[in-house]
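Entry:
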Amino acid sequence: MKDLQILSTFQELPPEPGRPASAPALLFDACHVGVALRAVLFVELVVGVGAMFGAATFFEWVTRLSVLTGAALPATLVWLIAACGLKILIALMGPILQHAAGVVLGALAGLCGCAMLYMAGWQEPVPWLASAFAGALLAALLVLALLWRQRSKAPAQTKARLNELQSRIRPHFLFNTLNSAIALVRAEPAKAEALLEDLSDLFRHALVEQGESVTLADEIALAQRYLAIEHVRFGDRIQVEWSLDAAAAAAKLPPLLLQPLVENAVKHGVEPSASGAQIRISTERRGSRVVIKVINTVPAGQGESGSGLALENVRDRLSLLHDVQCQFSCVLRDGIFQVRIEVPL
C-alpha cells in the first residue's frame, strides 16, 4: 500500500464532480408530523387563552373556543401545507427572506381563517386586519421554534463526530489494529493491506463532513469495516451475523449512528468474554417503516453499563432528524442485549 493512501485520510477531499459545494440551506422545515402536531397544539393553546377574553362563563368560553378553533385550525393547516409545499423554493432564498416568507404565509393563513369566520356568519365585525397580524405573529413564533430545532442538530452532530473520532484514535484500538497489521505484513500482506484500508476509511468517515443524514446502506458499510478490523483482533471470539433487507437501504439516519452501537456490542459483549460473543445486525422494511436491530450476547453478570452516553446520543440524534416518526428502545434480558430502531422510509 502506498503511504499516500493512508495520509490522504487527513487531507481535505474535493467536492464530488457535478455536486455544488454547498446545498441550499433551509432554515425551517414544516414537513414533519411532529412539527405539525406541535404547531396545531401551540395555536390551539393561544386560541384557548384568547377565548377567555369576554367569556363570563365556562360554557361561553367553550362556545367561543369552538368558533375560533373552526377558523384557527384550517389556517394552521394552510400554513403548514404551504410551508411544506414551497420548501424547495424557500430554501433558495436568503435567511432574511426565508423568515419573511414564513411570516407572509402566516398572514395569508390568518386571512383564510378570518374568511372561515365570515362564511360561518360571524356576528361581530370581521377582524380581517387583526387576523392577518395574528397569523403573521404566530407564524413568526413557529419559524423561530423550527429554526431553533434545526440549529440544535449541529451540536449533536458535532458531538457525535468528535466521539467517533476519539473512539477511532483511542490508544488501545489504534495500537491493536496497527500491531495486527504488523503481524500480518510478512505472512499475509494482502490481509494487512485490507486491514489498513479499513482503518483509513474509518478515519476518513469520521473526519469528512457528512451532512444532516446518510443512507442506512452507508452506515452498514461503515459498521462492516469496523467489524472487519475487530475480527482480525478477536478471531473466532467475534461471531457476526448480518440479515439485511435491500429494500431498507435507502432509509435516512444521522451520520455515525450505527457504528457506535456495534462498537458497544464488541466492548460489552466480546471483550469481557473469554469465549467471545455473537453479534447480529438486521434491517427490515415493514411498509413505510424500517426496523434496525443490533443484538449481542453478554457474559453472565456483565451489564451494558458504560454505554449509556452512546445510547443517549443515538436517541437524541434520531429524535432531531425524525422527531416523533422514529422509535428507539434497548433491553437486556437473559444475557442478550438488543437495540431496536424504527425510522420512516
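Residues 1-24 have pLDDT under 50 and may be disordered.
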